[in-house]
Write a structure and sequence with these properties.
By secondary structure, this protein is of the alpha+beta class. Helices cover 42% and strands 20% of the residues. The protein starts with a helix and ends with a helix.
């Protein structure tokens, strides 16, 4: 397996051993190790590599979906993307049913938080330039964040979130109620009630 042949055959910035086989080549760990030393490719994790000359074409949201599967963008990243919080988020935050872990990639840090399989829902598929990835609905991102942040249990903590009242009012409140029923968490339900009282005054 020659590098130039593989590079020509695989049209995307990343590849796995399966991609190599599907391209008609026999996967060689020795070749891959040599290409890493030559800085022709970069290892993201075992079984996931990017071509160095096209690595910047890969969006971090796409990369996050590749590093841990299954996963979807949520929490601070999805809240900011929806306009619910004003601060630009440093790093990318995701939800997974697997163990929580932090990854430090060439595109930036990615944090994965664990949630049970029963609560792994409320996301949509987004078509990226290189691959699709999953993004939490704004309603689900908010509930995910409250659920995984036990310190948010009073009005002061809610105020410190700096949720945009106008964006909050645009959320599907019926969907939030439906999701709260599945989560069955008294603290999160109480926080949502307090948010509705606070933001209805604006």
């Amino acid at each position: 397996m020659k590098y130039i042949d593989l590079k020509t055959s695989i049209k995307k910035p990343y590849f796995s051993p399966l991609d190599v086989k599907q391209a008609g080549f026999e996967y060689s760990s020795l070749s891959v190790s040599r290409w890493i030393k030559q800085q022709l490719i970069r290892k993201i994790k075992k079984g996931l590599y990017v071509f160095s000359d096209t690595e910047q074409l890969l969006d971090i949201k796409e990369l996050a979906s590749l590093v841990i599967e299954p996963s979807y963008l949520s929490l601070e990243s999805a809240l900011w993307m929806a306009g619910l919080i004003p601060e630009v988020v440093f790093g990318t935050t995701c939800i997974t049913t697997k163990s929580p872990i932090d990854y430090h990639t060439y595109l930036g840090p990615i944090t994965y938080r664990h949630i049970s399989k029963e609560l792994f829902f409320g996301y949509q598929s987004i078509e990226g330039k290189n691959k699709s990835y999953y993004l939490a609905e704004p309603e689900k991102a908010l509930i995910d964040y409250l659920y995984l942040t036990p310190s948010i249990d009073n009005r002061n903590a809610i105020f410190e979130l700096r949720i945009d009242p106008d964006i909050f009012k645009e959320l599907d409140q019926h969907k939030i109620d439906k999701y709260l029923t599945v989560f069955d968490n008294k603290r999160v339900s109480h926080v949502i009630v307090q948010m509705r009282k606070m933001y209805d005054r604006n």
